Hints:
- This protein has one domain (3-251).
- By secondary structure, the protein is mainly α.
- The chain has helices spanning 3-6, 18-21, 25-45, 53-59, 75-91, 99-128, 140-173, 178-196, 206-251.
- It is globular and about 50 Å long.
Amino acid sequence: MPLPLRFAKPAKQLSQSYFEQSRQPLTMLVFLAPLILMYEFALYRAEQNIQVKAHDHLVRMFEYADLPPTQGLFFGGVLIVTILLIWQINSKYAWRVEPKTITLMAGESIAAALPLLVLGVVFGSMVATNAETAIGSLSLFDKVAVSIGAGLYEELVFRMMTIALIHTIACHLFKQSESNGLIAGVLISALLFALYHDLPDAGSLPAVSLFFYGVAGIYLGVLFVFRGFGIAAGAHAAYDVVATAILAVLAT
């Protein structure tokens, strides 16, 4: 099960503070639903393949079931919805979402993206200017959708899935403490996140690239542990949208 579920408080012990409401699965689902729908709609209408790598890897899981990859086109979105709904059912949280909480989550996600933007100004622009990308040929809608998709599915793969897996292995197989399991999950997931973004054509800057994505991975991992999947995915998506917009302006 996803890591946040492991540490969820029973319903009878839950207060109604914003910070606890924002970590509840139904609230996260309502918050992320517009982002999921936007990216999946962009995939449906796109004339060229605009899948982010994390989403593409999830889709290709269908090949192992002898199904054409196109049948799994919406698999990533369905997977996020399924995980959060199962978590909601098992946790017995109230089936109620406060609109104010969703608004505050949007604001917090934007605020949480600011440190990534500062890091991106220092390191990201150097990496981006030395890496070729096909996103420049996309329409504005598709650029925004791809940026959102990266935030959603990279957080799903590298934070929700990877940290939960490493945490489980560390605690149950190697008998480590909960905190050590979390630290190991954050650090290993950040390393994998950096390698996933490795830019082989970046010339003399692979170390800068790895450092940038490694630090970003640690930051997003800590954000995931303390603030949950919704805020981590929202912050990642917000960063990617703003970074894409800045690069588009600089390219003109």
